């Protein structure tokens, strides 16, 4: 589990592409203070497993399913990425519950300054929009943010300069693709509400059966 509080911005050092998969080598600094083989690291919000590391560069494999559902397929050498290690059991919970499992992608359609804030409006699919609520939580490239506005096809967030400065958001431009993860609570509630009640089997015990056997 992650919190959406980015620890640092890392850099893609190399990408080795397979037929439908990829292997990433990512350079960082802060996360290496306590990084182990097999640890989970959210890379632009996507949960990846550390398969090796040395000299502040770690390696992670990306499977076909992940590439097809996220923006990781568009990464190039030298690109910055948001990094967050999985939250320890005794850690501070500063953002919201982030699983690192991407629900879909979105496209930035506007970026507007508003005094000390920056507004990002993101267009996305109906399957993602339906779980987004005003003042609810959304993870954009792994960043825990609060939804300020929602419409039929897009939503907006308003962020402070600190968030822009210490994440990849300050390098985003109109048209860029971002990873989106909805608040997991909404998805569970929908699942529970849509469950069909179990069909009860017809009883073979009738009034006639009871009378026949002396009841």
Structure characterization notes:
By secondary structure, the protein is mainly beta. The chain has two domains: 8-85, Beta Barrel (Elongation Factor Tu (Ef-tu), domain 3), CATH 2.40.30.20; 104-194, Elongation Factor Tu (Ef-tu), domain 3, CATH 2.40.30. Helices cover 15% and strands 39% of the residues. The chain is built from five helices and twelve strands. Strands 1-2-5-4-3-6 form a six-stranded antiparallel beta barrel. A six-stranded antiparallel β-barrel has the order 7-8-11-10-9-12. The radius of gyration is 23 Å and the shape is globular. The mean pLDDT is 92.
In short:
With 215 residues, the chain is mostly beta strands. The chain is built from 5 helices and 12 strands.
Task: Give the CATH architecture of the largest domain.
Answer: Beta Barrel
Strand tally is 12
Q: Could you name the CATH class of the largest domain?
A: Mainly Beta
**3D shape:** globular
**Between the first and last Cα atoms, what is the distance in angstroms?**
59 Å
Q: Helix/strand/pairing class, anyone?
A: mainly beta
Describe the main β-sheet briefly.
Answer: 6 strands, antiparallel, barrel
* H and E string: EEEEEHEEEHEEEHEHH
- CATH topology annotation of the largest domain: Elongation Factor Tu (Ef-tu), domain 3
- Helix share bin: 10-25%
- Uncertain runs are none
* C-alpha-based Rg, rounded: 23 Å
SSE arrangement:
Layout: E1 8-17, E2 22-27, E3 40-43, E4 46-54, E5 57-62, H1 64-69, E6 80-85, E7 104-114, E8 117-124, H2 126-129, E9 137-140, E10 143-150, E11 154-159, H3 161-165, E12 177-182, H4 184-194, H5 207-212
Antiparallel strand pairs: 1-2, 1-6, 2-5, 3-4, 3-6, 4-5, 7-8, 7-12, 8-11, 9-10, 9-12, 10-11
């Amino acid at each position: 589990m992650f919190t959406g509080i980015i620890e640092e911005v890392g850099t893609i050092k190399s990408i080795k592409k397979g037929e439908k998969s990829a292997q990433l080598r990512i350079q960082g600094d802060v996360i290496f203070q306590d990084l182990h083989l097999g640890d989970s690291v959210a890379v632009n919000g996507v949960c990846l497993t550390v398969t090796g590391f040395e000299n502040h560069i770690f390696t992670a494999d990306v499977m076909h399913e992940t590439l097809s559902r996220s923006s990781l397929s568009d990464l190039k050498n030298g690109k910055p990425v948001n990094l967050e290690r999985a939250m320890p059991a005794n850690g501070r919970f500063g953002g919201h519950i982030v699983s690192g499992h991407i629900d879909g992608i979105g496209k930035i359609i506007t970026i507007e300054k508003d005094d000390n804030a920056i507004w990002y409006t993101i267009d996305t699919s109906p399957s993602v929009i339906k779980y987004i609520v005003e003042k609810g939580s959304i993870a954009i490239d792994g960043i825990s943010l609060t939804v300020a506005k929602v419409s039929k096809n897009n939503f907006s967030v308003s962020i402070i300069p600190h968030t822009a400065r210490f994440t990849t958001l300050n390098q985003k431009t109109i048209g860029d693709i971002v990873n989106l993860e909805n608040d997991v609570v909404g998805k569970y509630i929908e699942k529970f509400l849509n469950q069909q009640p179990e069909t009860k089997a017809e009883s073979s015990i009738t009034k006639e059966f009871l009378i026949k056997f002396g009841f």
